[in-house]
Amino acid sequence: MITNYLKIAWRNLVKNKTFSYINIVGLAISIASFLLITSYVLDELSYDKFNRDADRIYRINSKVSLGGGDVDAAVSDDMIGQLLKADYPQVEQFTRIYNEETTKLIKRGVTNVSESRVAFVDSTFFDVFTLPAISGDLKTALNEPNTVVITKSMAKKYFGTTDVVGKTIETTDNGSSIYKVNAVIEDMPRNSHFNFDFLFPMKNLNYNWGQFTNFNFHTYLKLAKGVDYKSFEKKLDEYINKYVLPYVQQFIKINSMEELKKSGNSLEYSLIPLTQIHLYSNLSSELAPNGNIQFVYIFAVVALFILVIACINFMNLATACSSKRTKEVGIRKVLGTEKRELIFQFLAESILTASLSLILAIGLTWLSLPVFNDIAGKSISITFLFSPAILIILLTLPFWVGILAGAYPAFYLSGFKPIEVLKGKLSSGSSGGGLRSILVVFQFATSILLIIGTIVIYKQLSFIQSKDLGFNKDQILIVNNTQLLGNNVDAFKDEVLRIKGVSNGTISSFLPVNSSSRSGESYFKEATLDVKNSLHMQNWEIDYTYIPTMGMELLKGRNFSRNFNDSNSVIINETAAKLLGYDDPVGKRIYTNDANHNPISYNIIGVVKNFNFESLRQNIGALSFFLNKNTGLESFRLNTKDVNPLISSIEEKWKSMAPGMPFSYRFMDDSFNDMYRDEQRVGKLGMIFSLLAIFIACLGLFGLATFIAQQRTREIGIRKVLGASAESIVRLLSKDFLRLVIIAFIIASPIAWLFMDKWLQGFAYRVGISWWIFIVAAVMVLLIALATVSFQAIKVAVANPLKSIRPRS
To answer: What is the mean pLDDT of residues 108-134?
Structure first.
């Protein structure tokens, strides 16, 4: 019986080639798009789940609000993990990651290689995270100082083999240090919120321990089985009252944390599950750029919509073509075929079509995967098709797509009454017209929604690129790791400034882009430190030429100058001046504590115009500049378009002053763009899948137009004989479809506005959703739909009318 169903299904596919091609190609493109987007969604959802106890691991986040200056960070103080473990049995284990030292120089022969994927970790690191060992004992690998755990790739890079336990590596970034390799682990999974190649023991970290108000460590807790982390989160307030409050009371006049809250300030700790960090956390000091759960939701819906659009095509064409099969159904019923058998027959045709589409879709997926990976920033292999989740989808896809697409046509066609069919009482081509109209509206409403969303994303990205940031990010070359120059830091800067095409330069690791140094401190308006006159703001160490090199503007006062003793001077931004309550802060003083908790004062000598030193998702916070040498980076402003020879000249200067040390550079605008990498990728993917959705919808529209034109051939022939022009014929066949597109636009527009307005709220600085965006989307879809329908309409309109009205033999 099943074989018979398939034979008949195949014959009908061959008989109706045009509609079969439209259905198979449309379904294949939609399934391929569905598979690609599903791979992206599953990859995003898989982050950190490879850890054996991922459901019990949590990171401690901190939030400090002081004087209107707010800091939400993925880091905490150095003491919290060990004290929580000591005080609460709910904490099974803790571990910390410190990666403020962003690079290490590893000696390789006579050269030095700069490695940026390095971190200091506790010896408990492998008790919390699951990272398989190739060799060595991970339980004891980091117990002693001057040891290191490296990845498989690094073992092969530096030793040519993974059998390296007991061998040593030499670092040369801060003098020469020898580290014994105690273990080799597999390369860390790509779907991890951190990825390191070298893990050094915390015992080698030179740090001023026990500072409860310095947040520099990523701290993770592994809770005991059955512990509800939301309930345990309340214990963090107990920690603050027991440990942090007495520490703060040493140098700030405060009686309780309640007093701090009543003054409008706060200090809070919270927990975030490990598996939520990648998609739900976008705080300062993240270990790597994270994703966005909103994008996952959006792409999941887009994948479903694209598949549904193709299924709608199938339903539309099947019901539209029903008149061609009414006699077949009538004769079968007269001969005793039951309705159930007819339903199975039509479903078999749908499933066969879906199966053929799936085979073609797998080929399309394989061909497009490299391009998709490049745009999405992924490295997904075609083997993802054989993962359990995808394999289940592949095996069941033809059946549920076939049933989804073929259910209505099956029940509709099998419901014909044989007497009426054989008497020719069913109206040709009109059956199911109302449903077809609804489905066409849904298709194009979805397409319009995707187009509007894509335009808004691109408009926001364009705004980010063109907004006045308060500094000039263009033509700034950043030379990395300039601390390697040692005593030649200033000499290198002077030599580079002599090169033609370099107009200015500065030495500082603090830059207005992510991944540069960040440092925060509490400041006070009075010498008596009190929460009521306090302000938390970032403090950056810069040199005399920093402000002019960055193209920043001084609104009041002056810059740091060699003509003055500015060791206790400070320049603040507009936000800091406003929060301090000063109209003209120049000449006023602010206070903070030194390492021994003694108050020290700084004289405000200038106010710099606000500039965006964080992502445009955030408001501009309070910021202060201090005169101090910070030698990690040197930045140079270029005034030439021919940068390659200039960079070569700078590299020559570097090699002469730091022989054997790696030369590394980047441009500030590239670092700036990296902050919005996800939005850029989503914009590109959104545009691609929007166009695919429109293409698939137009395939169905073309099929419907073809069918209706065929059904109205004689009517059109008669109209032409009676004097109708080709233009009027085209207008006759097109107007109904264009009316449906207009209805789709009316439905889609408010939905698109709601979704995109919510997305834009994630940016502190954002564009408005202009009316012209909706007009552009409407015109695009109208023109595409008109071109699709008109192609077939013109073909019929210019045909010889005598052939269409001649009686069929």
So the answer is: 91
Q: Residue 310 is encoded by which pair of tokens?
A: 């193709």
Q: Assign 414 a pLDDT band (cuts: 50, 70, 90).
A: low
Rounded Cα distance between 162 and 688, Å, is 43
**Cα Rg of the chain, angstroms:** 34
- For residues 737, 738, 744, 747, the Cα torsion angle rounded to the nearest 10 degrees is -130
**pLDDT band (50, 70, 90) for residue 796:** low
Cα distance between residue 597 and residue 246, in whole Å: 13
Quote the CA–CA distance of 228 and 619 in Å, as a whole number.
Answer: 34
Beta bridge partners of 170: 178
Mean pLDDT, rounded, of the chain: 83
CA distances from 283 to 59, 131, 614, 639 (A): 12, 25, 11, 35
Question: Which pTM value belongs to this model?
Answer: 0.82
Give yes or no for residue 257 having a pLDDT over 70: yes
One-letter amino acid of 624:
S
Handedness of CA 601, 604, 605, 606 (dihedral sign): positive
Backbone angles phi, psi at 658, to 5 degrees: -135, 65
DSSP string for residues in 372-417: HHHHHT----GGGGGSHHHHHHHHHHHHHHHHHHHHHHHHHHHT--
Q: What is the pLDDT of residues 547-589, one digit of tens each?
A: 999 999 999 999 999 999 998 999 999 999 988 888 889 999 9
**Is the distance from CB of 592 to CB of 522 less than 8 angstroms?**
yes
**pLDDT grade for 428, boundaries at 50, 70 and 90:** very low
Per-residue burial over 540-557, b if 16 or more Cβ lie within 10 Å, else e, is bbbbebbbebbbbeeebb
CB crowding 185-222: b at 16 or more within 10 Å, else e:
beebeebbbbebbbbbbbebbeeeeeebbbbbbbbbbb
